[in-house]
Amino acid sequence: MDIFLQQLINGLVQGSIYALVALGYTMVYGIMGLINFAHGEVVMIGTLLAISVAGGLLQAGWPVALAAPAGLAAAVLGCMALGWGLERVAYRPLRNAPRLTPLITAIGMSIVLQNLAMMVWGRNYLGFPALLPKAGFEVAGAHFTAVQVVIVVVSAATMAGLLALVYRTKLGMAMRATAQSPAVARLMGVDVDRVIAAAFVIGSALGALAGVMVGSYYEIAHYQMGFMLGLKAFTAAVLGGIGNLGGAMAGGVLLGIIEALGAGYIGDLTGGFLGSHYQDIFAFVVLIGVLMFKPSGLFGEKTGERA
Question: What is the helix (H) or strand (E) element at residue 139, kind and residue range?
Answer without folding.
Answer: strand 136-139
